[in-house]
Amino acid sequence: MVPTMHIDKLTAFVAVADERSFSVAAEELDVPEEDLRAAVEEFERELGHRLFAQTTGTVRLTPEGAAALAPTRIALSALEAVTEAVSSIGLGREVVRLGVVVGAVVPSLPHVLAQFAREFPDVRLEITAASATALESRVADGSLDLAYVVHIGTSARFHFSFTDPLVVVGGPGGETISIVDLAERPVIAVDAAIGVREALERAASLAGARIDVIAHVATPELALELAGEHLGRAVVARTLAPAGSPRVLDADGAPMELRIGLIAHPEHRSTAAERLLEHLCDAVALVYGGALAN
User: Fold this and answer.
1) What is the reported pTM?
2) Which domains are seen in the chain, by residue range?
3) Per-residue pLDDT tens for 38-87?
4) How far is CA 89 from the centre of its chain?
């Protein structure tokens, strides 16, 4: 049986999958928990499979639920795009959709958006915050026009990007610190949305060491404050750290770096979206101009 593509059922399923909790998902969506459960159960009946396994205090995806999650996200994005496209025509307004990675500091963003609004007063600008991986997927499927992404590694398909080395604050002096030496003390990592912690743990494992991440925080400012209280060594981007902070080297002795920049859909970009992309590229270049990556 092909499930009815009702946006409420898809939204309920994705919310519970993301939060791993019916109660938290219901609170996030601002709906009664019983209504949320009913929507998920109806979706399960239509698919003919259980999507979640629930034990005391724990909700996890079944194998069928895990397989359904990515296609459901795509379907949900498509339905949302259709709804927004029709609504925007009814309002007589073009919509430009910008994604920003969670926790990122976008250079001069208020100024850029104000400049864009002056140039395109009839264009509605929508901004979405999500992980780098989620933003890349949404640009690829067309539900976002462009996104500002901070990414560890090289998998993101950047239109325009720069590199920013990871450095250590609160550790020994010197120009560099190896991943093995970094693993000798507790570490404060930033952040969930760009995969720094996972990259550090992977590099340490390849070097035969283990990173002790005692705090996984959302902002560089908090990481630096915790390091200042001697609670651990903060690993942050060099542009946000005190001058002279040592760069982190991976198991092969290469600097570990973030890539910062813009990704954009290769087609279907409007004049307004192209202009916003230009403004954002200029703003990012002012901060990272000495470290062009492509």
Assistant:
1) 0.58
2) 7-73 (1.10.10.10), 93-294 (3.40.190.290)
3) 989 988 888 888 899 887 778 888 888 888 888 788 777 766 665 655 55
4) 29
